[in-house]
Design goal:
Elements (H helix, E strand, L loop, with lengths): L2 H5 L1 H13 L8 H12 L27 E3 L2 E3 L6 E5 L6 E6 L3 H14 L5 H4 L2 H17 L1 H12 L3 H22 L7 E2 L5 E9 L2 E5 L5 H14 L3 E6 L5 H13 L6 E5 L2 H10 L5 E5 L2 H13 L4 E5 L5 E4 L5 H13 L11 E5 H18 L18 H16 L3 E4 L3 E2 L5 E2 L2 E4 L6 H4 L6 E7 L2 H8 L4 E2 L1 E5 L3 H10 L4 E4 L14 E2 L2 E2 L12 E9 L6
Parallel strand pairs: 7-8, 7-10, 8-9, 10-11, 12-13, 12-20, 13-18, 17-18, 20-21
Antiparallel strand pairs: 1-2, 3-4, 5-6, 6-24, 11-23, 14-17, 15-16, 19-22
Helix pairs in contact: 2-3, 4-11, 6-8, 6-10, 7-8, 7-10, 8-9
């Protein structure tokens, strides 16, 4: 603690309670964000924990330690020698270049993973409790280096440092620890079968697993995939997004440091069509888990059918309805709906961009939401404690958002605020709110993946259930009402994998997450995710005589 921080400790402690009480899910709302800004400004949260001296990070002083592929516990160049550029979204400038994996590198990584999974190998013979201990040690190492890893995530992805430090990296740590606890609790059953037999089941790891992760939550999505893979005893190859490879490569080094055997964890940076395609088509990979677009998800499913019928789980796009009834707690609904769209600058597959508000409170809600977007979103340097709204990931994504905003205006939606690029460097997009949106408009049907809110009105329950379900997606939904019977009725009727009641974006390791329809199938997180990474083997043995 600095002297200034120590002097302010008493009032900061009192603010913690109010900040936490104002929080919806694990996303940081305004009170808690202001608290964190105060902590940052008073030098309580500043340093790279492994550094000898405190470091106030900025885009010019975050070191990049790993730029090669991590295969068989070693960092190696790609076979081709190719490298790809990594861009800072806040400036548009090059951070570094990293090795570009393709099919040849995937083949080498798969061979290492298969060797690590061989019958009788150190990984296969390791006690399940020891697997859990290694995962906990990995989480401890990440927590030790949390300030540096958060700074690197911000450099690579552009999200505010306060979000990286207080949301993303803690979720990584918590996910690893949650599944570490499951490692020695995955087991089969003895079955009282007919006849003179003894029957039992084993839940065995599927083998070599491929993971393909997105750029919006780079390290969090890495953890969502790799934690259940390891808990169940599998080995893996994780292909991280080419835009954001840096934190995954760094924590791969920590995995070696804490003692994971060779070949168990392999991390590749590379492009989707080459490295990702090689994983999807590989004959020696038994399972692929993918988070990304619906379009690419369909290609992965097709690749499975054309190769070895590998298991596939897909967490894909969304266009989530957020339904606000007139009996809700209005301030609660405003705060949660605001974060439901603008958190992570709208780069969330479950963002509640289709916001439906009951007619009697519609005008008041729109007015307050526009004011909230104008006053509470602070764009700027992601390392500035005051910033809570970073850039989009790249120019391609920014231009897609601008094109859809333009279509909204042309199709007759009422642009209330925003709608344009912000600043002259980087890929910043103004927080944008549309009102009077009709269900047929492109902004109401297409996933924007940006900070663009669309508000529509509705009359009654039957109408809104039909409209909310009128989409190809089914990832998430939310309902704001004080009527418990209504909440139960609508949550049962909505075709979505996750339904939030009087909250939004509550994503924790213990709760499963995944979609219906074209939002994919299978589940990340929670106990349910374990089912995708084990095979059930039934063993039946004849016995001379069976007694109960």
């Amino acid at each position: 603690k600095s002297a200034a921080g120590a002097a302010a400790e008493s009032d900061i402690r009192s603010e913690v309670s109010s900040g936490i009480n104002a929080e919806y899910g694990y996303y940081i709302t305004n009170n808690l964000r202001m608290l964190i800004s105060k902590l940052l400004s008073r030098s309580l949260i500043r340093c790279h924990s492994t550094a000898a001296a405190a470091v106030a990070y900025n885009s010019n002083n975050v070191p990049v330690h790993q730029t090669k592929l991590f295969i068989n516990n070693e960092f190696v160049e790609a076979v081709s020698g190719k490298r790809l550029e990594v861009i800072n979204p806040a400036t548009g400038e090059t951070i570094c270049d990293v090795a570009e994996a393709d099919k040849a590198d995937v083949d080498i990584a798969v061979a290492a993973a298969r060797s690590a999974f061989a019958y009788g190998s150190p990984w296969r013979t390791m006690n399940a409790s020891e697997r859990g201990r290694l995962m906990n040690k990995w989480a401890d190492a990440i927590e030790r280096d949390i300030h540096y890893i958060a700074a690197l995530e911000t450099l690579d992805n552009g999200k505010p440092f306060s979000d990286s430090l207080n949301v993303d990296i803690p979720l990584v740590i918590n996910t690893l620890r949650y599944y570490a606890g499951w490692a020695d609790k995955i087991h089969g059953k003895t079955i009282p079968s007919d006849g003179s037999t003894f029957v039992y089941t084993r839940h065995e790891p599927v083998g070599v697993v491929g993971g393909i992760t997105p750029w919006n939550f780079p390290l969090a999505m890495f953890a969502w995939k790799i934690a259940p893979i390891l808990a169940c005893g599998n080995t893996c190859i994780i292909k991280v997004a080419e835009q954001t490879p840096l934190t995954a490569l760094y924590v791969a080094r920590l995995a070696k440091e804490v003692g994971f055997p060779e070949g168990v964890i392999n991390v590749l940076s590379g492009y989707g069509p080459t490295a990702g395609g090689a994983i999807a088509h590989h004959m020696d990979i038994e399972k692929v888990g993918f988070t990304g677009s619906t379009e690419v998800g369909k290609l992965i499913q097709e690749a499975s059918a054309k190769s070895n019928l590998k298991r596939v789980t897909l967490e894909l796009g969304g266009k989530s309805p957020n339904i606000v009834f007139d009996d809700c707690d209005l301030e609660q609904a405003l705060a949660a709906s605001h974060m439901g769209v603008f958190f992570n600058v709208g780069q969330c597959c479950c963002a509640g961009t289709r916001l439906y508000v009951q007619e009697s409170i519609y005008d008041k809600f729109v007015e307050k939401m526009v004011e909230k977007a104008q006053k509470e979103r602070v764009l700027g340097d992601p390392y500035d404690p005051a910033t809570n709204h970073g850039p989009q990931i790249d120019g391609t994504q920014l231009n897609k958002i601008l094109d859809l905003v333009d279509s909204g205006v042309k199709q007759g939606a009422s642009l209330q605020t925003g709608g344009a690029q912000f600043g002259d460097k980087g890929y910043f997009m103004q927080p944008t709110v549309f009102a009077d949106v009709q269900d047929h408009m492109d902004i109401s049907t297409q996933e924007i993946f940006g900070p663009v809110m669309q508000i529509s009105s509705f009359k009654d329950t039957d109408e809104i259930i039909e409209r909310a379900n009128n989409t190809n997606y089914g990832l998430a939904a939310a309902v704001f009402t004080k009527n418990v019977d209504r909440m139960y009725h609508i949550s049962s009727a909505l075709k979505a994998g996750t339904v939030w009641g009087n909250c939004y974006n509550v994503l924790v390791p213990q709760s499963p997450f995944g979609g219906f329809k074209e939002s994919g199938f299978g589940r990340d997180l929670g106990e349910y995710a374990l089912n995708h990474y084990t095979e059930v083997k039934c063993v039946t043995m004849a016995v001379p005589q069976k007694n109960s």
